[in-house]
Specification:
This protein has helices at about 10-15, 20-40, 80-150, 155-190; strands at about 45, 70, 75-80. It has 2 domains: about 10-40 and about 80-190, Outer membrane efflux proteins (OEP) (Up-down Bundle), CATH 1.20.1600; about 45-80, no CATH class. The chain is built from 4 helices and 3 strands. Helix 2 runs antiparallel to helix 3 (about 80-150) and helix 3 runs antiparallel to helix 4 (about 155-190).
Length: about 210
């Protein structure tokens, strides 16, 4: 049985976890929204228009948010509502802070899962090695007892006892082999798994 974990880029494996990947995407989207909100601070500039005051209602003409300015017949601009834009930036930053906390929480949970899975796997590896050695010793003892029984030097009860010990330790070793396979799958899942077939993951630009 192959009990060696495949080697690979642990960072790439780690980032394939669905929870970490989702948290990273949410953080990237939240950071991007800050840039969008900040862009709203810039004035709207158009070419080929003259200065004017526009409103859907007569009472709105001359209002500050509807006021535009011109520099000749080719250039005009209008300023946004700064208070609204700043409020949107604050909201975007608060959302990004919450997304960052969620991302850090997902990473910490993933690290805890990996640590627990590796600890369980390592413990079972040690147990499996000890059981393998015990099975080999039981096999040697049974072979010796069997030879002595054939020569009439030991009783059938001695042979039966040695055989029972061999069967029991062999069963324990088989159970440990199954536990190792299960523990290895748990480690693979904690690391993201499936890296042998999956394409490489490109980092998201908005998150360092």
């Amino acid at each position: 049985m192959n009990r060696v974990l495949p080697a690979g880029d642990v960072k790439s494996l780690f980032r394939r976890r669905p929870d970490v990947r989702q948290a990273e995407r949410e953080l990237a989207a939240s950071v991007a929204r800050i840039g969008v909100a900040t862009a709203d601070l810039y004035p709207t500039i158009t070419l080929g228009a003259s200065a004017a005051s526009e409103s859907n209602r007569v009472g709105g003409l001359g209002a500050r948010r509807n006021r535009s300015y011109g520099a000749g017949p080719l250039l005009s601009w209008s300023f946004p509502d700064i208070l609204v834009a700043r409020a949107e930036i604050r909201e975007a930053r608060a959302t990004a802070s919450a997304a960052l906390a969620g991302f850090q929480g997902a990473v910490l949970q993933a690290l805890e899962d990996i640590e627990s899975a590796l600890a369980t796997y390592g413990s079972e590896l040690d147990r499996n090695a000890a059981l393998g050695e015990a099975r080999d010793q039981s096999q040697l003892a049974f072979n010796l007892i069997e030879t002595q029984f054939e020569l009439g030097r030991v009783s059938y009860l001695d042979l039966l006892t040695a055989e029972t010990d061999l069967v029991n330790v062999s069963a324990s070793l088989a159970g440990s082999d199954q536990a190792l396979a299960s523990d290895q799958v748990t480690v693979f899942k904690a690391l993201g798994g499936g890296w042998e077939q999956a394409p490489p993951i490109a980092p998201l630009d908005a998150v360092q």
